[in-house]
Each structure stands twice: as structure tokens, then as C-alpha cells.
Amino acid sequence: QLQLVESGGGSVQAGGSLRLSCTASGYTYSSYCMGWFRQAPGKEREGVATIDSDGRISYADSVKGRFTISTDNAKNTRYLQMNSLKPEDTAMYYCAADVSTLPSQEALVAGTGLFGMWGQGTQGTVSS
């Protein structure tokens, strides 16, 4: 059974950092396209960053230079390191995966409709 489990959300002040984790069970990340998404209250879910099956990474313009995806293959876990956080980064964050072989940038553009597997989400709150 394929499963994604997120953790690491919390509350920080503006300028602070959070590291989100997404652990996969039932498959290995290297075979899948994976993405981080977020959804703020009253807004649509949006793509934050994607990593494709070749390891290429793409970031949304709003987080470029502040957020970083990394991987721990031994733990089958991917991380989203979020630095220099802003109040507008407050959202529920989700990780997602799919068997798609699209390059990361195309996967980011394709958005939520591409991804067939989703975690339960973890809340990140940034106060001013």
C-alpha cells in the first residue's frame, strides 16, 4: 500500500524556518515524481516545488531562494526546508507523488491534477 506521511509543521515568526518531512512507504522516491503543495484558507492549492524521477527540482517563483527540497534515501524521506518565512507562507502543506515522468518544471505547472498520491498535510503558520 502506497502511503505518504508529512510531519514538521509548526508556528514560527516571520524570518524563521521550518523543515517539513514527507516519508513514503510502499515505494521508493527515486521512481516517482514528487511535489510539495500548499493551501491557504480560502485559496486554491498551489505548487511549491517539485522533483522529478531524474532528480531535477523546480520551485515556484514565490519561494525560490528560500525553500529547498532535499532527500534522505536511506529513510525514503524528502524534506522541504523553508527559510526566511513570511506570513503569506502560512498554509497547510502537502506532499504528493505520481508515476509521471514529466520534468520537474512541467510537473509544477501541471499542478495538483497530475499527482495521484497525497499525504494528509501539515500546518505551517508564520506570524508577523
List the helices and strands and how they pair.
Elements: E1 3-7, E2 10-13, E3 18-25, E4 33-39, E5 46-51, E6 57-59, E7 67-72, E8 77-82, E9 91-98, H1 104-110, E10 117-118, E11 122-127
Parallel strand pairs: 2-11
Antiparallel strand pairs: 1-3, 3-8, 4-5, 4-9, 5-6, 7-8, 9-10, 9-11
Q: Explain this structure to me?
A:
- By secondary structure, this protein is mainly β.
- Helices cover 5% and strands 48% of the residues.
- The chain contains one helix and eleven strands.
- It has one helix at residues 104-110, and strands spanning 3-7, 10-13, 18-25, 33-39, 46-51, 57-59, 67-72, 77-82, 91-98, 117-118, 122-127.
- Strands 2, 4, 5, 6, 9, 10 and 11 form a seven-stranded mixed sheet that branches. It has a four-stranded antiparallel sheet with strand order 1-3-8-7, with no helix packed on it.
- Strand 5 and strand 6 (57-59) form a beta hairpin.
- It is globular.
Question: How would you sum up this structure in a few lines?
Answer:
This protein is mainly beta. The protein contains one helix and eleven strands. 5% of the residues lie in helices and 48% in strands.
Overall mean pLDDT? 94
> How would the global form be characterised?
globular
Uncertain regions: pLDDT < 50 for 5+ in a row? none
Secondary structure category: mainly beta
Proportion of beta-strand residues: over 45%
Number of helices: 1
Overall helicity: under 10%
Largest sheet: number of strands, sense, barrel closure: 7 strands, mixed
Number of strands: 11
Distance between the termini: 41 Å
From N to C, what is the helix and strand string? EEEEEEEEEHEE
Radius of gyration: 13 Å
